[in-house]
User: Fold this.
Amino acid sequence: MADDDGAARLSSSAVAARPDDLSGSNWDDDNDDDDEKFFDAADNIVDDAEGATHPASPTNPTSFVNRSMQVAADDSESDGLSDTDDDVNPANVVRDAVDPVAESAAIVADEQRNQRVNLETGEVFPIDDDLPEFDTFDTIRSADPPPDVDEQEIREKKIRTGFFAKMLHRATVSDVQGSNQVKVKSHKKSELDMSALKQLQVLNFHNGPVWTMKWSPCGNYLATAGQDAIIRIWLVCGGDAKIEDSTLVPSAPSMSAFGQRVLHPSPYREFAGHKSDIIDLAWSRSSFLLSASMDKSVRLWHVSRTQCLSSFQHADFVTAVAFHPTESRRFLSASFDKKLRMWDILDHRVVDWAQTPLMITAAAFNPSGRLTAAGLYNGQVVFYQSDGLKYFTQIDCRNRHGKHKRGRKVTGLQFTGDGKQILISTNDSRVRLYDMDDYSMTMKFKGHENESLQIRAHFSEDYQYIISGSDNSDIYVWSTSKDYTSAIKGPSIMRKSNDRNDSYEYFKAHSGIVTVALLAPERTLLFATRAAPAGGPIRHIIVSSGYDGRIKVFENRGDPVKI
Assistant:
């Protein structure tokens, strides 16, 4: 195995201590009664309430850099959270939520903070060995020469972010060959899956980088957000969403190829209220949306409403958020204050929390909701039982040798549909797949560049592909079932003896950093095909966002081609 192969480390008794059926079950439908309670509470919103929409005030993204290093250097900084009554009135759900107890009083002594005890064996297991130096949250490596910049466009967009502005430039239609055909390249592949990829749309509403995009489970909506602190909801053409109460923006600075569209050219909703960059988004099955922000808050929204339904305050930047897959009234949040929190939306309070030794940069539930994962700044992923957020085990995503052997920031976590595997993205330009039965690494995906930003890889809905943006302006797509793997029943990804996959397709998507890349779910493909049936069924839809603020939409109707 090469020197940079990843190493997985876990408690010796972790597998034996594994709770029954933690790995997966089918998601239950959201509770309609809870949905109605969310809306009933939101009806009490008044114009001057915290949850009402207000103009956003974007911040310099360099503050994200500076604050990350400040938090890392100051382990003893106080939360600043205060007590609140346990009997929170749901009718006042719009007010800021705080932790129900003085958290600082409950934290164990410093020498015990970074230890966890196996629930069944009593073994003490440290989770902070070989901590990295907190020397980077830079977005671009200093060795990279700055590209040419269109200063006039930057002035028009009013983006003034120091070093970041120098690296910012606009993507144009010239990124694609001819009118809209995209040149897809391959590396160590005998077959090209994206054989007829075309760029269909460029949407230019965001002012500054887009940090996060998420498809709704119903396939009707795409949510996007980033530096400008505005959440934009896009409707899928041909979808079955009701749009009677639409607030579509009248003017649309977007381009479409030959009139073909996947998304309506104007946002269906524009949610304002956050005061700083939005880092993460999460949908529920009934189209509620959570947003996590650098303004130290999580906000709750619904596509049928124009105002924020609730705001949940934190002590520091909120880096990740996730709805509980089976209990719609609960959600998970992760923060730079090193705490993983479980919230009750209706009670407007924290019901459980766990302390970690380092800043949390990613978090996720497994499909059953019985297990949570928290990704840390040094490449560790710590697993907790959701009930009480009790420590369960951990793995280390780091190389054995080389410049990244001390571990790099975890940028993304995603479980497979059956919960048997987890995909982990890190800032060492690697995407790793781990088996949840024995916590061993089964595959490492290589090719893209991800050195410092919060770029994360995503599965396609059928788990046949993994897609990721990159620092080098390209989008990368790996196949999980061809060339390197053999079929297994169900949605689990396949295994092979050689644990490295550097066989991929890639194409130039933006003229700068590609911050997010997603493959559309099956329902979105059906809707888009219904809206534009000429040319046959759409096999793939890719949406990407860039550091330039633009969102691009690509489609592929071609069959795989031997190369």
Remarks:
- The CA atoms of residues 69 and 135 lie 7 Å apart.
